[in-house]
Specification:
CDF/SLC30A; 3 strands; alpha+beta; 4 helices; Alpha-Beta Plaits; 3-stranded mixed sheet; 148 residues; elongated
Length: 148
Amino acid sequence: VAALVLRSGFYVTKSSLHVLMEGTPDTINTGEIIKTLKTFKEVINIHDFHIWLVTSGMNALSCHIVVNDKMSIGENETLLKRIEHELNHKNIQHVTIQTETSNNNHSGKLFCDMKGKGEGHLNFFIQFNSILELIHSKIDFYFTVPGF
């Protein structure tokens, strides 16, 4: 019984940490989302791209898109509504997109170009996830209960 409690407790803790650390949802294909954004002819470039899990079953996206300098505010709003509609079909419920012209001062890198600590935050999450996977494999090995 203790083994079952330990095993199920591990899964709950792992899932909770994934939400608290705003991890990318397992059910979302980031490449597919980027392709979806690029299908809109008005989108010239995408950068500062983030997808994370807000709560269980609620996914969020934040990014910047570069559009033509000549687009009106109304055209921008129409584009954003069309993008939000498509992303909702891809299981992204909360969308925040900043539209910019090509005159912005961003690096143009697809994923966030954090200042200061570089990629330290990304390396920490990768290492943390590796540790969780190692623990998960050990728990499965030592506490596998037939029929569960």
